UniProtKB/TrEMBL annotation, chains A, B:
Residues 559-669 form the Non-reducing end beta-L-arabinofuranosidase-like GH127 C-terminal domain. Residues 446-552 form the Non-reducing end beta-L-arabinofuranosidase-like GH127 middle domain. This is Glycoside hydrolase family 127 protein. It comes from the Archaea. Residues 14-423 form the Non-reducing end beta-L-arabinofuranosidase-like GH127 catalytic domain. It comes from Natrinema salifodinae. InterPro entries: 6-hairpin_glycosidase_sf, Beta-AFase-like, Beta-AFase-like_GH127_C, Beta-AFase-like_GH127_cat, Beta-AFase-like_GH127_middle. SUPFAM superfamilies: Six-hairpin glycosidases (SSF48208). GO terms for biological process: carbohydrate metabolic process.
Amino acid sequence: MAPIRRAASVDPADVTIDDEFWNRWLETTREDLLEYQYEQLEASGCLENFRRTADGADGGFQGMWFADSDAYKWLEAASYVLATRDDPGPDSDLRRRVDDVIDLVAAAQGEDGYLNTYFALEEPEKRWTNLNMMHELYCAGHLIEAAVAHHRATDETSLLSVATAFADHIDDRFGDAIDGVLGHQEIELALVKLSRATGEERYVERAQYFVERRGRDDRLARELERIEEIAGYDPDDGGVAADAREAFYEDGDYDGRYAQDHAPLRDQEAVEGHAVRAMYFLAGAADVAAETGDEDLLARLERLWEHMTERRTYVTGGIGSSARGERFTEDYDLPNDTAYAETCAAIGSVFWNRRLFELTGRARYADLIERTLYNAVLVGLSLDGTAFFYDNRLASDGDHHRREWFECACCPPNVARLLAALGRHLYATGTGTGTDTGTGSDERLLYVNQYVGSSATVPIDGTDVELDQASGLPWNGEVTLDVDPETPTEFSLRLRIPSWCEDASVRVNGEPVSIAVDRDSGSGSGGDGGGVDNGYLVIEREWINDRVEVTFERSVVPVRAHPAVAADAGRIALTCGPLVYCLEGVDHERPLHQYRVETASAFDAGYRDDLLGGVVTIEAGATVPELEEWDGELYRPAAESARHSTSVTAVPYYAWDNRAPGEMRVWLREE
Amino acid sequence: MAPIRRAASVDPADVTIDDEFWNRWLETTREDLLEYQYEQLEASGCLENFRRTADGADGGFQGMWFADSDAYKWLEAASYVLATRDDPGPDSDLRRRVDDVIDLVAAAQGEDGYLNTYFALEEPEKRWTNLNMMHELYCAGHLIEAAVAHHRATDETSLLSVATAFADHIDDRFGDAIDGVLGHQEIELALVKLSRATGEERYVERAQYFVERRGRDDRLARELERIEEIAGYDPDDGGVAADAREAFYEDGDYDGRYAQDHAPLRDQEAVEGHAVRAMYFLAGAADVAAETGDEDLLARLERLWEHMTERRTYVTGGIGSSARGERFTEDYDLPNDTAYAETCAAIGSVFWNRRLFELTGRARYADLIERTLYNAVLVGLSLDGTAFFYDNRLASDGDHHRREWFECACCPPNVARLLAALGRHLYATGTGTGTDTGTGSDERLLYVNQYVGSSATVPIDGTDVELDQASGLPWNGEVTLDVDPETPTEFSLRLRIPSWCEDASVRVNGEPVSIAVDRDSGSGSGGDGGGVDNGYLVIEREWINDRVEVTFERSVVPVRAHPAVAADAGRIALTCGPLVYCLEGVDHERPLHQYRVETASAFDAGYRDDLLGGVVTIEAGATVPELEEWDGELYRPAAESARHSTSVTAVPYYAWDNRAPGEMRVWLREE
């Protein structure tokens, strides 16, 4: 089967972001976050583990048993930063620091290509004996991702050669000597990345093996039974064995859903289990489908996506509602005050959705990326970049706060590597399917998926096209795009119509292009070279040096959740454009549960540059109960109680918990 | 100071209940519950502990370390049953069984009067060394209560002599040899009971010591520090030490509130800590106030009662909202789905409230007894008397069910002893305070506190008055009372006006008595010999042989909770007369959270004898969301969603979980 790739994202190295909203986050990432995380790599003993392994030391491993991955995620993020710098030359401080860490990593690698400092230091004889819990392949996957990023940024092979040696080691052993999969996915998508970077097809075959092998026998179940023996842990002493029992057993029986091991992927009906594992798994499966041209597998992934987004996703885009097992639970089980919605799971969702977009060219995946980025991901990071949410509640009584670091420090470096490569999600090229536009299957397409101020150079069929975007998002829907090809070129420009957009107007070189947007179907009609297809606003023409101006109309929209969501019954959430809003205690006199928001009256949305780094706040009419009449009573006939008018101030959800600690609620009672 | 007793409850032995609603519960208690619990005393090893102690055995104690109290509670309940039987003669099966258990208990008593099978069998050298957790005085208190009940029922002293010997032992040692109080109260009220039964005043003094001593130093705190040593428990192995740490420590500091040990009672501002302990403590304190004539102490108790009922009581009368520590938490913290509201705490509240009524003659205490009995207590018992709720949720997703027994089996025998002596709460005599009625302070009063079909002989100033009551409660407010003194006697009949009563009409021998009831103030005005005082409808006259007919008007009333109660925001609870209602999943097609009850339209309340042993159900108009419009969407603009009309069926809260398991909610969303 021929590979499937209906769209190819433009490499972040070819995109330079300059955006009023995002600049601050990216600066935080490039400067503070990378520096801070490097300090944590030293402080936590992560780098020391590599040093001691290189020195042939015995014992003394520090941190979680998968701490190596922290170093790799840092290397990946740092490589993306190097790639987007004007001068990533070998003399820069960051470049030198990256090289130093790579030297450490390379020195810790074994003669046979194996590389894992936990096993090297603590249990060298137990390599590959506990795939379920010990994350060796997970760490390998992050090494590979870092290596590919570093190679792209620098053209160097210092880390890539380490990664290929380890990948070869893995490829040699798995399938024959070791027939099984690992608990925490990551190796799958990493091997496809490595294949694309090296041209080595067997890495795709090995990734396919890992994707297809899962759920086909009880290897993980059997491993769990002998976990004490193989991992050397006392099950009564907490730790890994206890974690595994907690995660994998339901009412005493093995429950493979935790690691998506309950059935072969092709038979799975819903996204289940540990949300980060699920996202990495499905991203890897999407990569395998792309490379092998497996339309059946792609159809299964699209079905799983629909089930997830229609039944198991918070309004923020967050996923995995339960802290126990960090997992998906049941359809419509989306509690707010105990929402887990791990930051890493949201990041994993972005990874999976980018792949689904590339496989299908459908706007809905890019649309979910937008919602997830602005809400479920950004909330994970404080405005100053120094504190992090691991889990993201949608309601808090005031006891949930960002922390400076975590023993299991997966989220902060994951945020860093996502934001450092944010440019990857903006533009893509592809060829048309010709189903709706009637322009034939060979049309050339240029997708604009995210509205982020930026400049980029995008090759369309051999011609470099310079793009220059200015965007008012998320505070307004004004977007300007200058399109300047090397030589005049005909192609179809596809501008994603956001799901929050109520109407859109377009002008090309000042001339209106008439387009009717049907929000529900993602389709519409137009003329003058304009149209709507697959969720995109389409402008097909010969581009010379043209300016496209788009206004995506947006207003404050209170949304309701499906009636089956018990936690949101009788409540609305305020949204405005891509942003979900919340109330914080600091802005209100009464406890938040006492307010009812008037959805029938007008909302007042206005920009305040003095607040939270500059945000649009929403003022809404509301009522609160009269308190005076309750003198000394706890229960009264309902007919006797009255309310009076007041207002509430909502702020973007991502910005909460950056002021005085207090209550927060996304879902509000409605008047 | 002279004793305070504004009212004296009529002894349950002098009251014969014959009531359509209560007969089934009392039969269940007399027959099945007592039999079932006796079997549990055998099966759990409780009686065997006494046998082995009598035999001088070593070790082998079975059950919780306070299991002796289960036997005592059973003896107390059985004695109440004997007292109300026409023929409690020595040949009855129950009488023989009671005597056998008493023989066992007596044989287990030590030479010095000490009696506790846990310490006798397991740690004889550690008597009285761990008052905090080991419940020796708690068991002693239950022994005393049983002994007094048995003595009243039979005139025998077989158990009373055991109790007095133990009480003397305790009185000898405490205060001097042992200066301290115990963790779980019960001895206080028991010693006052014993004093009243024996005329021995020093038992009151010892009770007073226990009441006043608490909260005055850190004896309990010091004991906790050495709990491992003195109780022989491994703190890392769960059990008593772990329980104590869990209960008594807050953020690492000793928190005496758990055992009401944070301050002297006279300085306490709120009812705190373990709810059962608090109720037993306050009941004992009320007894001490009564005997010592301590008006200051009484005023403190009334203040604590007001704080509890205005801020920390469920609409059912249940108290103690948190499973952690089985305790009171903060003002207005009344979660529904995690409500603890232990059955024993509700029973303790009835005990305390009866004492407060006797001390004050105020209807509000009898009113809370009514609410608590019909809702928070009865819900603890299945309709067939064989399964029990220990904790009582006010909302359940379907996973909360009554169980047949508990390792800590405090609630079932507590229900039994309360119901077996239900007659105690119906009638009382007293003398008037003369403040409101203007009839002078020496008037003779006869209180009717609970409307339960019954006959009783009540002495008023030396004249026996025969009372014969018929009551339609809880299904309607029709009450008929025949008053027939031996000789014509003038006294003031006081009929409690229930707080749920919207209006009342009274006829004496068919002649209307005009009365205006003011629900809020508990007062009102009247003529023709009628009036309202202290929450009572007053009829003063010379009684010859007269019939009083009262109608307490009641309707379905949706009530709201104070705005500070976050759990009930936007919700109403349906009440009708003394009953709180709930929705059960079994009666509804949709998940319960989807219904909104229309409070503006009429409710349809009707008796259904085919349901739940015969209940009045409430049919209410309601709406549910349209589901069709939600095809494949999880969030939609609020303006687009619609609802349609339907109805809900509410059943009395006490009767829930007696049919197919499923959801239950007391607090309902409002249309």
